[in-house]
Structures are given as C-alpha cells and as structure tokens.
Amino acid sequence: MDESHDSTIGEDYTDRLRNRRGHAWKRLLPDPYRRNIRRLNLGRTLDVGCGIGRCLAFVDGNGVGVDHNPTSVAVCRERGLEAYVPEDFQLSDRGLFDSLLLSHVLEHMDEDAGVSLISSYLRSLRPSGKIVVITPQAAGQRSDPTHVRLIGEHEVSRLFGRLGVELESARSFPFPRPVGRFFTYNETVVTGVLRGEASGGD
C-alpha cells in the first residue's frame, strides 16, 4: 500500500483489521467471499496490500502477499502465509505471477499514488496477466476513516488506461450496487488484462 498514508501503518491498523475479521458473521459465512476470489481464476497471485491475509488465504497457498505494514505482514506469517514488506519483496526472487490483486487498497490513496503503486509491481506480472481491483462501495467507504476517496468502475477504468491495462469486467458483489449504500461489505470488483508493455502511468 502507499507508504504516504501513515494511518494504515502500525499495530493500531492491524488490530482494526483483526477486529473486522473477527465479526461473527464473517467467521460463520466466509464462503461467498472465498468463492468470489476463487472464481476469478487468478492463478499464481501477488496480493498487493495484503493486510492480515484475508484474500491471500483464499488462494490456497498459490500466492504471495506484500504490505507496507510490518505488523500485518507478521500476522500473515503467523497464519502460515507468505508475505513481505515491500523492501524485502523487491530484494527477493519470487518469479512471475499470473495476477495482481489489490483488495481494499486503492481507496486509501489518490489516483497518482495508485498508478505508482500498481506500476511498481507490473514487472512481476506475466505477459497478458490479470489485474483485479476490489473496492468498497458507499457504506464501506464511510466505515473507515483511513479511506480517502470512493472508487468505482469509472475510477478504476481511468487508472487502468494510464497503465496500459485493458478493462475486462466490472461487477458488484455480493449484492447489486444499490445495496452498497447501506451494506458495508458490498464490493466493486474490476478485472483488467495487461496488453503489451505497461505504460507506467505516463
């Protein structure tokens, strides 16, 4: 995640993620969100801004996470997941990935920071690799004071255009978009494909 947003670094933010993961309904009914990730057919996945590893756990060992919060990375590792802070990931040789996943990341930064973040990992993506962006809708946006802007299909499409990524699909999950006005956990899921050489946001 963008390192300019200090509010997502440290133990306090990690504890907030733990508390959300601990909500009773999420423990009892994780399957819709797990199935959502699995049906995207991500292949080997680089989870950028992986937090404490919710989505990373859903790829069943076929992924690597990276997050700028060392406390969250430590929680991932405690859970048996492979995760790194950006500096350590850049120094490692993890090979190429079939997909980049950014779940609940881009709403924490402005568009330029989002372009910079994604472009810094595009070299880890195979040719014609997939990029998946998942963002909260209106109620979810309001639920976290570290969110700086509401991002929907239009905003992601514009960002993709700057990166040389072709928009493939966009949908609301798990309910239609109007539900996102009051259901905190409704999400926008946007998928793109990297065509040719990445533009790097220029």
End-to-end separation: 20 Å
User: Mean pLDDT across all residues, rounded?
Assistant: 88
Helix/sheet category: alpha/beta
Just give the CATH class.
Answer: Alpha Beta
Spatial strand arrangement across the major sheet? 3-2-1-4-5-7-6
User: How many whole angstroms does the radius of gyration measure?
Assistant: 16 Å
Q: Level of helix content?
A: 25-40%
Oligomer description: single chain
What general form does the structure show? globular
Number of helices: 9
Number of domains: 1
Low-confidence stretches: 1-5
By DSSP, the count of extended strands is: 7
* Fraction in beta strands: 15-25%
For the biggest sheet, the summary is: 7 strands, mixed
As for the CATH topology, it is: Rossmann fold
Instruction: List the secondary-structure elements in sequence, H or E.
Output: HHHEHEHEHEHEHHEE
CATH architecture: 3-Layer(aba) Sandwich
By CATH, the superfamily comes out as Vaccinia Virus protein VP39
